[in-house]
Design goal:
By secondary structure, the protein is of the alpha/beta class. Helix content is 36%, strand content 26%. The protein has 2 domains: 2-216, Rossmann fold (3-Layer(aba) Sandwich), CATH 3.40.50; 222-276, no CATH class.
Length: 300
Amino acid sequence: MIRVDRVSKRFGEVVAVSEVSLEAPDGEVTGFVGPNGAGKTTVMKIICGLLPADAGVAHVDGVPFVRSPRPGRALGVHLGGQWLPGSTTGENLLRNAADVQGEPVRDVGELLGLTGLRDAARARIGTYSLGMRQRLGIALALLGDPQNLVLDEPVNGLDPHGVIWLRSLLRAEAAAGKAVLLSSHLMSELELVADRVVMLDGGRVLREGRLGDLHDGATTPVLLRSDELPSVVALLNGLGHVLHQVPGGALVEDGDPATIGRIVFGAGLTLTHLEVQQQSLEEVFLSSTTDRARIEAAQP
């Protein structure tokens, strides 16, 4: 398990993260989402011991990672394929990393096959595409068969086949009981793989929880269509419902479809379509930022 408790970090006058707390439990993929510059990479570097926190603590399986007795088994890290050395080959990089760990690791040939790099194993990394570098960085993270994984924007540079491969890989790692903390600004992609989500914006946590719970707490507009749409809209507006016209119908803000149906049919009108519109993760994030701004504006 990865646990971050009230971590803060400044760079000069810039507050990068402020009292960030999160958990990435064993056996689950935790999506760390937010726009570029939200502070995700800073938090991940603090977890990995690459940056000291100004306040708060980050633990990997109960201890700071820098004090882990078996670091290669405790945490696998990938913070970007662009930093890999270009002059060596992919195979040599993995073998050198295996030698440094000083304890049994996964078979290098197996990892090259798993990450789709077997044919490029003896090519210099400088000739790799960004997607291939991402795959190699993920292979390095998996080398020690760690109990926890921290991956920063690993989807960047992957083609569609690579994205599907990565989803399958991460689900398999979580199914093996590992904790996976995965960051991305592509929330639609994380929605397909994550069990839990931590939303970060401006260096602060907006919301945290299981993906289904975040959706359950979001507003759920109802889409309706009718051959008598103007009359239906006038009826619902008159009863205090807020509606927005959309092509071919109208959206009722945070509506209950059963109640709307009873009202419309009770008035002798008809509906041809009535459907709850599930908010996407992006929409949940945007509504959360709006809610936070309203709260902050109301504070003295």
